[in-house]
């Protein structure tokens, strides 16, 4: 026996299983009702034990394709044994009447643990009574065994007829494989299929398969660098390799991919890459199916760590085990892309030789090859840049970079043969080329192109040029960050960042970024900005902070690019501080003057401020879909304008007290049509922080809201409004003040499924709280969003009034969303008295969950801490919440022991260690009858959650 046969025999003793089944028939009789469940139990046990053995062998040898072949062989034996039982004992007249064939992926002799079993029952033209019943019996047994069986029952004539009009059926039959039954029918189908379907239809099949692939890529995100890729259907996944093999089998009439080397389509090295990629992807897919117990094709965050462990990856400095595994995955996906380009180039050349007119089917270009102006190395081949001769790169390696520059200038696509030439010439990119002045000039021209720099950079990256030409970039190619915030690998993120910058540079983003669009034409050093944008994350995956390490790399690269010392320092500063503006805008109180002065001290100049704003926008936009929103844009604009005012020397010298008096007068004057008594009463309701930080139009709106509530005798009232541009919904709450008010409002929002992004907390002079909560917008339509906001407001009112109990509504929400997180974030608390002149700033960082904000604010109330304002920021699975606080007499918290106690208590909350609702947590602040603070409840258990 061969080694393969020995391995297969470990999965199943075929003779023994046959004997057991025969014994069952003898025991119960062919017509007995007890036979079917008895056979089912035996076959099911054999299948489960065989698959478990396949899983054990996968863990031992790691061979993904071997595992898929073993499971396919196991399935073959089970079907063959079942067929023998059916035609021997149950339907003896059907023996050698029909054939059972595997089609689709199963037809290739590979089967993933959870995949469908695709079968074609091939019938003779003249069908006999009982054939369909025999087929049905087999299918019912397979279904009862737990398999998903895709099946068709057809004659040879039907297969041929349907193949002519249906490309899916044609592809399935292309990969059909005999399992058992009447072999002559399968031979007839193969012969007729080749003569009547395949012959002369190669271009038609190729065009259909490539179009199908493009549509599949579009649905899957059209990038191979999604951090939760689809291993089967995604770009660079198994289906792309299958597509290549389908085309090769159809066009070149081959059975084994190794024959592509003999045909000159792939080099031996490229064929080995094909084999390794196929084996790796199969290993990942089989592990996924075994781990999840189903046909899971999406490599999601929650299973990535376990797959990495199963494949024996270990952490290294700067990269965790799962990040190393995913980097390998994306490198393999990139290899699949390289193979696709090389294969398509060979295919087009072959078609052009055989029938020149057919090349247009693939290329979709009509013009003839002609000279390219300003170039002797390249030609325009039907709208694509191509090599003038095969030795272009050998004669002058700079032409590798020049190829992309010329393609950009002339707006040309790439001939597959040119990209194949690039891929096979990567060894020519050495230190001499990297230091070549012309090569670096051309690269900067590509990067700063007014046309589509991101497209050229992506082509360079996919061809392997970018990582070879700039080795520092090569280190982050295919690198992923194991978190929910970043949607793409680091290299794809950087290229997308350039894409956003180019969009702003062309003035196409006025609706999203009106300020950046206005500032961009006035930025003096456009080249420095592009360099900073492309390399801002180039040091990811190193032990040193990537911003600091990136600034060091930038100094080296800028010198290589021939940039002056002044410009080099500007690029380095932008990279080192690329997170500064985002973090200040999203986690600091922009109404606190010290926030602005501290930020301005770091920025120092208006030119830096402009460039940092644009870089920050590009960085956030390129993180992934849905990450950017109007609220973040508003925060950045506010920070920009406040800082611009300070850098330009425009901060008012008028004292805070005088400005507050002026603001109060302005509010009174703005209450047009009100009685003098009401104007005086409602303008004096507010303290300095409110008057100096809330825009006058909002002050007027709040005054109208409070007066209306007073007229109705409402102790508790809410009002909502939407803001589509900022993508937020504002909920303003008027209530008797209470130490735990913020905790209750936060809990009510969590129970209603609202994500809080900011909170403005004010107390009126008559002892009421006027709190404005900003939540992320969920619906594009204002009517739908207002209905949602009204529901949130009603939840807040119900909880504050005691009609609903906060612990119960949060627990219900948490149960509906409970799922073990794939991520860990070490809880961290920072308490600072240097970030604000008036407040102590408490910043907490931890893993997000339902009800978290409510728990944290409740704990702060427990600790007798008064929250003046809060900034709530979510980065994927991680939250960074910032609270500007004082003690109960309005002073900063300076005692070291007390600060240590606060840190310990908050860490306990963030770690989920507080299981009971703290004594004093209100069930309602206002009873329905009117103004009354509810009595302190008994301790009750609460399920944590944000």
TrEMBL record:
Its cofactor is Mg(2+). Modifies, by uridylylation and deuridylylation, the PII regulatory proteins (GlnB and homologs), in response to the nitrogen status of the cell that GlnD senses through the glutamine level. Under low glutamine levels, catalyzes the conversion of the PII proteins and UTP to PII-UMP and PPi, while under higher glutamine levels, GlnD hydrolyzes PII-UMP to PII and UMP (deuridylylation). Thus, controls uridylylation state and activity of the PII proteins, and plays an important role in the regulation of nitrogen metabolism. NCBIfam families: PRK05092.1, UTase_glnD. It comes from Ferirhizobium litorale. Pfam families: ACT_ACR9_3rd, GlnD_UR_UTase, HD, NTP_transf_2. PANTHER family: BIFUNCTIONAL URIDYLYLTRANSFERASE/URIDYLYL-REMOVING ENZYME, BIFUNCTIONAL URIDYLYLTRANSFERASE_URIDYLYL-REMOVING ENZYME. CDD domains: ACT_ACR-UUR-like_2, ACT_UUR-like_1, HDc, NT_GlnE_GlnD_like. GO terms for biological process: regulation of nitrogen utilization. One of its GO terms (molecular function) is phosphoric diester hydrolase activity. This is Bifunctional uridylyltransferase/uridylyl-removing enzyme. It catalyses: [protein-PII]-L-tyrosine + UTP = [protein-PII]-uridylyl-L-tyrosine + diphosphate; [protein-PII]-uridylyl-L-tyrosine + H2O = [protein-PII]-L-tyrosine + UMP + H(+). The keyword Zinc does not apply. Keywords: Hydrolase, Magnesium, Multifunctional enzyme, Nucleotidyltransferase, Repeat, Transferase. Residues 1-373 are annotated as: Uridylyltransferase. Has four distinct domains: an N-terminal nucleotidyltransferase (NT) domain responsible for UTase activity, a central HD domain that encodes UR activity, and two C-terminal ACT domains that seem to have a role in glutamine sensing. Residues 730-811, 841-921 form the ACT domain. The keyword Transcription regulation does not apply. Uridylyltransferase (UTase) activity is inhibited by glutamine, while glutamine activates uridylyl-removing (UR) activity. Residues 490-612 form the HD domain. SMART domains: HDc (SM00471). InterPro entries: ACT-like_dom_sf, ACT_dom, HD/PDEase_dom, HD_domain, NT_sf, PII_UdlTrfase/GS_AdlTrfase, Polymerase_NTP_transf_dom, UTase/UR. Its EC number is 2.7.7.59, 3.1.4.-. Belongs to the GlnD family.
């Amino acid at each position: 026996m061969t080694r393969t046969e020995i391995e297969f025999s470990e999965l199943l003793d075929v003779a023994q299983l046959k004997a057991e089944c025969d014994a069952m028939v003898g025991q119960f009789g062919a017509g007995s009702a007890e036979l079917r469940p008895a056979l089912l139990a035996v076959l099911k046990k054999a299948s489960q034990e065989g698959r478990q053995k396949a899983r054990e062998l996968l863990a031992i040898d790691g061979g993904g394709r071997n595992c898929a072949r073993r499971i396919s062989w196991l399935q073959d034996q089970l079907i063959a044994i079942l067929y023998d039982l059916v035609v021997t004992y149950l339907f003896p007249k059907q023996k050698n009447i029909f054939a059972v064939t595997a089609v689709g992926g199963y037809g290739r002799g590979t089967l993933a643990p959870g995949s469908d079993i695709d079968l074609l029952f091939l019938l003779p033209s003249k069908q006999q009574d009982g054939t369909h019943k025999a087929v049905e019996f087999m299918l019912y047994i397979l279904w009862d065994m737990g398999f998903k069986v895709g099946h068709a029952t057809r004659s040879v004539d039907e297969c041929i007829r349907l193949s002519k009009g249906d490309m899916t059926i044609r592809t399935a039959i292309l990969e059909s494989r005999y399992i058992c039954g009447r072999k002559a029918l399968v031979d007839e189908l193969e012969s007729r299929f080749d003569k009547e379907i395949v012959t002369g239809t190669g271009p038609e099949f190729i065009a259909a398969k490539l179009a199908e692939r493009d549509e599949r890529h579009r649905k899957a995100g059209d990038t191979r660098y999604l951090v939760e890729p689809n291993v089967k259907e995604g770009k660079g996944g198994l289906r792309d390799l299958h597509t290549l093999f389908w085309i090769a089998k159809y066009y070149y009439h081959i059975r084994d991919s190794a024959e592509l080397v003999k045909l000159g389509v792939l080099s031996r090295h490229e064929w080995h890459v094909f084999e390794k990629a196929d084996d790796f992807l199969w290993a990942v897919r089989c592990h996924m199916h075994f781990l999840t117990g189903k046909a899971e094709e999406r490599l999601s965050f929650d299973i990535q760590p376990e797959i990495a462990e199963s494949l024996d990856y270990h952490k290294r400095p700067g990269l965790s085990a799962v990040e190393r595994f995913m980097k390998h995955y994306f490198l393999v996906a990139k290899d699949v892309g390289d193979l696709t380009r090389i294969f398509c180039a060979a295919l087009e050349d072959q078609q052009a030789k055989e029938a020149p007119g057919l090349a247009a089917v693939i290329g979709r270009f009509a013009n003839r090859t002609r000279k390219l102006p300003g170039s002797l190395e390249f030609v325009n081949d039907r709208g694509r840049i191509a090599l003038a001769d095969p030795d272009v790169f050998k004669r002058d390696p700079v032409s590798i970079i020049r190829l992309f520059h010329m393609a950009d200038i002339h707006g040309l696509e790439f001939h597959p043969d040119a990209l194949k030439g690039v891929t096979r010439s990567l060894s020519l990119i050495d230190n001499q080329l990297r230091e070549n002045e012309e090569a670096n000039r051309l690269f900067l021209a590509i990067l700063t192109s007014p046309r589509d720099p991101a497209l050229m950079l992506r082509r360079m990256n996919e061809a392997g040029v970018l990582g070879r030409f700039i080795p520092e970039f090569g280190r982050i190619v295919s690198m992923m960050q194991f978190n929910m915030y970043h949607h793409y690998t680091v290299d794809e993120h950087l290229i997308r960042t350039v894409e956003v910058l180019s969009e702003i540079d062309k003035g196409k983003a006025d609706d999203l970024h009106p300020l950046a669009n206005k500032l961009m034409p006035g930025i003096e050093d456009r080249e420095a900005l592009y360099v900073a944008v492309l390399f801002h994350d180039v040091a990811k995956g190193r032990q040193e902070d990537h911003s600091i390490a990136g600034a060091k790399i930038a100094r080296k690269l800028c010198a290589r690019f021939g940039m002056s010392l002044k410009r080099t320092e500007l690029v380095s500063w932008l990279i080192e501080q690329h997170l500064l503006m985002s973090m200040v805008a999203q986690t600091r109180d922009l109404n606190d003057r010290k926030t602005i002065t501290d930020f301005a001290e770091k920025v120092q100049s208006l030119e830096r401020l402009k460039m940092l704003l644009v870089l920050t926008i590009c960085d956030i936009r390129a993180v992934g879909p849905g990450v950017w929103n109007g609220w973040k844009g508003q925060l950045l604009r506010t920070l920009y304008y406040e800082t611009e005012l300070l850098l330009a020397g425009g901060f008012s010298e008028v004292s805070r007290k005088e400005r507050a008096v002026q603001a109060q007068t302005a509010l009174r004057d703005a209450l047009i049509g009100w009685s003098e008594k009401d104007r005086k009463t409602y303008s004096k309701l507010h303290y300095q922080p409110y008057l100096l930080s809330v825009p006058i139009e909002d002050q007027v709106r709040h005054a109208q809201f409070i007066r209306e509530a007073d007229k109705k005798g409402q102790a508790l009232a809410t009002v909502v409004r939407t803001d589509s541009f900022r993508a937020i919904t504002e909920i303003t709450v008027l209530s008797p003040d209470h130490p735990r008010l913020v905790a209750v409002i936060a809990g009510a929002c969590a129970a209603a499924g609202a994500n809080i992004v900011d909170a403005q907390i004010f107390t009126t002079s008559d002892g009421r709280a006027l709190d404005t909560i900003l939540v992320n917008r969920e619906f594009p339509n204002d009517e739908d969003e207002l209905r949602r906001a009204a529901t949130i407001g009603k939840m807040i009112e119900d909880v504050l009034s005691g009609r609903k109990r906060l612990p119960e509504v949060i627990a219900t929400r948490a149960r509906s969303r409970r799922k073990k997180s794939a991520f860990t974030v070490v809880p961290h608390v920072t308490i600072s008295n240097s970030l604000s002149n008036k407040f102590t700033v408490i910043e907490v960082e931890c893993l997000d969950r339902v009800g978290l904000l409510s728990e944290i604010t409740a704990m702060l109330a427990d600790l007798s801490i008064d929250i003046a304002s809060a900034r709530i920021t979510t980065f994927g699975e991680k939250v960074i919440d910032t609270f500007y606080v004082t003690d109960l007499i309005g002073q900063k918290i300076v005692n070291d022991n007390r600060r240590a106690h606060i840190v310990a208590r908050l860490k306990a909350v963030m770690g989920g260690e507080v299981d009971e609702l703290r004594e004093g947590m209100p069930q309602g602040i206002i009873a329905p009858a009117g103004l009354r603070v509810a009595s302190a409840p008994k301790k009750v258990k609460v399920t944590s959650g944000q």
